[in-house]
Model the fold of this input.
Amino acid sequence: MSDKEMYIQRGFSSRVGFGSRPALLVIDFIKGFTDASCPLGSNLDAEVEATARLLDAFRTGSLPVHFTTTAYDDAMVSAGVFVRKVPSLAQLKPGSPWIEIDERLAPRPGEVVWTKQYASAFFGTSLAAAMTAQRVDTVVVAGCTTSGCVRASAVDSCQHGFRTIVARDCVGDRSAAAHESNLNDLDAKYADVVPLEEIIKAIAG
Amino acid sequence: MSDKEMYIQRGFSSRVGFGSRPALLVIDFIKGFTDASCPLGSNLDAEVEATARLLDAFRTGSLPVHFTTTAYDDAMVSAGVFVRKVPSLAQLKPGSPWIEIDERLAPRPGEVVWTKQYASAFFGTSLAAAMTAQRVDTVVVAGCTTSGCVRASAVDSCQHGFRTIVARDCVGDRSAAAHESNLNDLDAKYADVVPLEEIIKAIAG
Amino acid sequence: MSDKEMYIQRGFSSRVGFGSRPALLVIDFIKGFTDASCPLGSNLDAEVEATARLLDAFRTGSLPVHFTTTAYDDAMVSAGVFVRKVPSLAQLKPGSPWIEIDERLAPRPGEVVWTKQYASAFFGTSLAAAMTAQRVDTVVVAGCTTSGCVRASAVDSCQHGFRTIVARDCVGDRSAAAHESNLNDLDAKYADVVPLEEIIKAIAG
Amino acid sequence: MSDKEMYIQRGFSSRVGFGSRPALLVIDFIKGFTDASCPLGSNLDAEVEATARLLDAFRTGSLPVHFTTTAYDDAMVSAGVFVRKVPSLAQLKPGSPWIEIDERLAPRPGEVVWTKQYASAFFGTSLAAAMTAQRVDTVVVAGCTTSGCVRASAVDSCQHGFRTIVARDCVGDRSAAAHESNLNDLDAKYADVVPLEEIIKAIAG
Done:
């Protein structure tokens, strides 16, 4: 029996579906992660371009859009113990171009860019409160990396009470194996992993 | 029977005392609050000067220091429902001098300035995580306003597991009545309200 | 100028109003707080009876209802530093009748009783997540005490993105002075303080 | 290049190491998960027995120990949107033996059993506050499942500022592939994955 069959048989992997008010959450598509010349980066052109299409759909529908970046103070105090585990986080300092959103996805007025210090977009930010005030009930997740900030944010989105949809074509990772494994975990336990075209249809509908 | 006696009789108002590693938390001593020409501001010169002395004690002891400011995105999305209640929060926008720390208390390298959107310094920030990573066990609170961000931050400091000390001479408010009432609540339930000189002695000791 | 006028002039004290989906949050109307024979308790009969009427209105409208109690493990580890400040919290142990909801307000199926350890109903519980999943946008607060758990919960309700209404007749305190002062703070900064009859009309409307 | 080499080259996978005050966190070794006759369960005898040894080491050293269980109200309101994704969570109801800690790991006085509703032991509980009050700086994680509650809790432990150590022999999963993949992610980004014997030595030392 495959893992997928095992999960279904045991009462996992149900569909959460879309609610009535989705928001788009674009996680850490910052230059430090989308530019392969940064130690933290890799080539994510296909995922960024797919996300640009998703962003169009949300903007056309006048639906809430949120971005995140990751950044620390110069002394890395705000990085807590995380920087002991991942010393290259020290690349993400104030004033560095690495912490800017990729220009192919430039935020517009009314779209908040949240600065976070950890993996989850909801940890140490007031993102959940802003979404609640916007009456959001569904969070569509794009960004990177699948095994890092996307995974942590999608789990937290479910934990905060939002139906969570991961846009399969709009999330990417440094490791192909970790990417697939995390999508499997997310789809079994926390979120629906859904192709871009299907999400665009649901948003337009 | 006075409220103070009532609380003691009922098993409140005990002393939490200092632990072994205090941090200083300076809440919202930003120009918008310490300059009486801002609708949100008032004259807090005495409290700012007392805080400068407290800051000296922490710096002399090489102890952790944290500051907060309050700021929103231009569209006030990050202000959630709070701005419905307090429309003048819209003064606190990116680029405004109102959100800068009062220059009499200028932060030094290694002292983080946390940007928050709500009353509590711990809500929507990763301040508690940074303090835990610094092995802090005691939070000394200065700042403004006593009935607003100081009250909410001191309650949250207790809730997060830190011994909490409010520096009586270093906190101020727009309303004298609200100032006193909140110090009474805090001292009965969440924090020790302690004069500046006593804190300086404890830090030096 | 009165504090009330000062707040209005400075851009506080606006009305948040009701949204489209209110929930009732009944905070700590437990026997240890509503029975004057407990060191933590006082006579809150009028407030409990007013809350029973409010509860009827929410049940008639099939609207979400949540209760809280406060309770700790026998060793008080889960009380953190809070029990250093308020030693009488040790009354609130598993198995004690003090931690049971007052029988005049008996919860019904589908109404969750959240066990919390601190002042705020939202701290260390997944209440906000449950309300978000229920599509709640407005939290009506009843319970005790005004200067303790009601204050902390109303502030946190605003911080989590919910419009917050404090039911003036349904909240009580050990101290009359602290009661009034906290209602003033709440109404200026975080929540609308509204009489029972007005809330019942809004819920029915 | 292997993923492991890629992570090291890019500045991940550093060692966080032990601090001076470790706590043990035993996640969801409840009968519903350790009894293969429950739809949520599987045979985790080896992991439970290894955890019993780890528990001995912590108890011998008089170090803090915390357990979690997962449980909901009868109406599953407290399960939020999570139960839409994993309908079999409805097995975890008050009064069910499934939510009890496996008797091979019976908690002792002073060891808190936290009831959580979501994957992370830190979400919707005041566990982090209790650990901070206990001066904990290092969290050693055991329990199940590796790809579910262990992963989410270890990420959150790092996010809350604790050095995080996953006890390799003391964590288990329904899926062998998900188990390995999640240990790889954790060791690269959030926690040191360490064999039991090495942890026992560090605790004793």
